[in-house]
Amino acid sequence: MPFPVDAKYIIEAEEQLEVQFPPLFKEKMIKENGGEAATEYDDWNLYPFFDQTDKKRISRTCNHIVLETKQARKWNNFPSTAIAIASNCCGDQLVLIPMDNDSKKLSESIYFWYHETGALEKVAENIKELIAE
């Protein structure tokens, strides 16, 4: 069940990963830290930002973006600059990648990373395209 998150936890993740998350993604996550998303072919569980407000939130956010990205980077074909933001529970990930002109800023575009082949496929211009409102 998604719930709001304080922006300070997003800033902490940005510092740990040495990136800046895109504005629309941050806006969505501040309102609902985690939740579900859907692409044409799959349903996804969005990773939350690690929320250390209390024990309940720590427990609910233990599969956070920083941890899941570090785990995904252990795969041989996971893009080294990608940030994992969601899983389909089959090994594939939705990822954000850096902008062409600034490696520290993540693009709003969302990509499907195929764990079996390492291929990336753009699936949305931004997070709003994947969330039912």
TrEMBL record:
Residues 4-132 form the Knr4/Smi1-like domain. InterPro entries: Knr4/Smi1-like_dom (IPR018958), Knr4/Smi1-like_sf (IPR037883). It comes from Flavobacterium quisquiliarum. Pfam families: SMI1_KNR4 (PF09346). This is SMI1/KNR4 family protein. It comes from the Bacteria. Gene3D superfamilies: SMI1/KNR4-like.
